[in-house]
């Protein structure tokens, strides 16, 4: 998959010569896939090296960094409706595509899979809380825009507090959900080099992803007009699907290795972090950038999230 990174210099060249936006958009979608996978791999390996507590905190914080980078850059370019739609798309990809594919792969290879009942109950409760927090702003959708944004800001602060409490409870209460220091997957050899090299890979991937996301955001609207795509479709299917590709690949990898608990941590856990961390951070970032974004999702988006 690393050969797809060749599209990054191609994007740079096309932007230099003011190339076709449709071609820039297509190459940006292609380039995001290996960059997201590289960031996920570097984060996972760094978490393994730093031990259970620090590594778990890092893993839980950075696992949704691609969605945050892509959404932040798009928000800076004035694409708030697309950003909200991309959050919906990422949630649907995690819960339907990622978890569904992982269950199929695990079932075909190992037969009936069993999960920890207490962990399932905890995850279900957190998902219900996330759904409720997204429904409340939609209920006030017909109020004035200013009050709606204020309500979204207050909910964003509450969501961040819930996220911090959830992370602390996971790390110091039940133990983190993830790969421990001695749990390197059997089909993955340890990465050569130390923590510095892994941090370098993570930083370079993040910078490259920010550049590609900027190119994607600038070419999105011209491409949408050329192809007749709506903002919701562009966000849910294109940005949401690409942003969640890392979780899908990780879930499939864990399912092939028989680690069904990690499948839940990657898919359901990532969805919870999207609502508790990424969405409120994007709301607060929008206020700082002067590009206001609220949490009042459309009826279609709310129904899709609740059903998922």
Encode the helix/strand succession as letters: HHHHHHHHHHHH
What's the overall average pLDDT, rounded?
A: 78
Largest pleated sheet: none
Q: What's the number of helices?
A: 12
Uncertain segments = 175-191
| Integer tally of domains | 1
Intertermini distance: 30 Å
Integer-rounded radius of gyration = 19 Å
Question: What amount of the residues lies in strands?
Answer: under 5%
How helix-rich are the residues, as a percent range?
over 70%
- Gross geometry: globular
Q: Tell me how many strands there are.
A: 0
What would you call the structural class?
mainly alpha
Q: What does the model show?
A:
- The protein is mainly α and 308 residues long.
- It has one domain (2-307).
- The chain has 12 helices and no strands.
- The model is unreliable at 175-191 (pLDDT under 50).
Features:
12 helices; mainly alpha; 308 residues
Write the layout of secondary structure elements.
Elements: H1 7-16, H2 21-50, H3 52-62, H4 65-76, H5 80-110, H6 117-139, H7 145-174, H8 195-227, H9 231-243, H10 245-256, H11 260-289, H12 299-307
């Amino acid at each position: 998959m690393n050969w797809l990174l060749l599209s990054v210099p191609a994007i740079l060249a096309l932007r230099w010569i003011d190339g076709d936006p449709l071609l820039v958009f297509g190459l940006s979608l292609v380039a995001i896939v290996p960059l997201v996978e590289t960031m996920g791999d570097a984060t996972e390996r760094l978490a393994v090296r730093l031990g259970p507590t620090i590594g778990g905190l890092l893993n839980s914080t950075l696992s949704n960094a691609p969605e945050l980078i892509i959404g932040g850059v798009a928000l800076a370019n004035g694409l708030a409706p697309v950003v909200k739609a991309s959050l919906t798309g990422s949630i649907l990809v995690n819960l339907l595509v990622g978890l569904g594919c992982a269950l199929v792969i695990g079932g075909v290879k190992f037969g009936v899979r069993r999960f920890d009942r207490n962990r399932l109950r905890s995850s279900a409760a957190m998902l219900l809380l996330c759904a409720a927090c997204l429904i409340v702003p939609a209920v006030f959708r017909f109020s004035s825009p200013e009050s709606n944004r204020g309500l979204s800001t207050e909910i964003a602060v509450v969501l961040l507090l819930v996220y911090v409490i959830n992370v602390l409870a996971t790390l110091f209460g039940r133990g983190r959900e993830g790969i421990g220091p001695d749990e390197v997957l059997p089909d993955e050899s340890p990465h050569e080099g130390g923590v510095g090299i892994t941090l370098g890979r993570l930083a370079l991937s993040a910078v490259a992803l920010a550049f590609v996301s900027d190119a994607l955001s600038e070419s999105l609207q011209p491409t949408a007009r050329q192809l007749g795509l709506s903002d919701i479709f562009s966000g849910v299917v294109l940005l949401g699907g690409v942003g969640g590709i890392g979780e899908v690949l990780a879930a499939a990898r864990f399912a092939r290795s028989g680690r069904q608990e990690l499948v839940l941590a990657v898919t359901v856990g990532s969805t919870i972090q999207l609502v508790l961390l990424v969405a409120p951070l994007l709301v607060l970032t929008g206020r700082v950038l002067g590009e206001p974004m609220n949490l009042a999702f459309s009826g279609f988006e709310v129904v899709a999230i609740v059903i998922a």
